């Protein structure tokens, strides 16, 4: 069985800066990076008590909140194959997002998505 490691929580917000400010003031989160996602989009990366929290923009208030959580694994395709053999369903096949990032999404209960990403460790 593949070895998994918790990676991040991804939240969507109608106002990412305001949301980040809330976590900074309320829990002492620290802004680590503002990531350029292209086409005028950005994502904020915070350190929330040792947990990576990503905040991206949504224009739909109904879709704001917890988007998904992420797990990383050393060999993504192997992990996906193992999970599929156990009847786990995927909403996104293994996809190279950038030279540094390859991901896939599986379907967890209660309409929650779980992102799997490939890590070097």
How would you spell out the order of helices and strands?
EHEEEEHEEE
Rounded to the nearest angstrom, the radius of gyration is: 15 Å
* Low-confidence runs: none
- Strand composition percent: over 45%
Inertia-based shape: globular
Number of strands: 8
- Under the CATH scheme, the architecture is Roll
Write down the CATH class: Alpha Beta
Mean pLDDT equals 93
Distance between the termini: 15 Å
Strand order of the largest sheet: 2-3-4-1-5-8-7-6
Any idea of the CATH topology? 2,3-Dihydroxybiphenyl 1,2-Dioxygenase, domain 1
* Number of domain modules: 1
What topology emerges from the helices and strands here?
Blueprint: E1 5-13, H1 16-27, E2 30-38, E3 41-48, E4 51-57, E5 65-73, H2 76-85, E6 90-98, E7 101-108, E8 112-118
Parallel strand pairs: 1-4, 5-8
Antiparallel strand pairs: 1-5, 2-3, 3-4, 6-7, 7-8
């Amino acid at each position: 069985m593949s070895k998994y490691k918790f990676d991040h929580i991804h939240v969507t917000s109608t106002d990412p800066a305001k949301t980040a400010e809330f976590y900074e003031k309320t829990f002492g989160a620290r802004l680590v990076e503002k990531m350029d996602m292209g086409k005028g989009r950005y994502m904020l990366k915070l350190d929330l008590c040792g947990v990576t929290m990503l905040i991206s923009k949504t224009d739909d208030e109904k879709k704001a909140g917890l988007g998904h959580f992420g797990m990383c694994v050393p060999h993504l395709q192997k992990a996906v194959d193992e999970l599929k053999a156990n009847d786990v369903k995927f909403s996104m096949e293994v996809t190279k997002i950038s030279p540094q990032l390859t991901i896939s999404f599986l379907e967890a209960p209660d309409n929650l998505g779980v992102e799997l990403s490939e890590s070097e460790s």
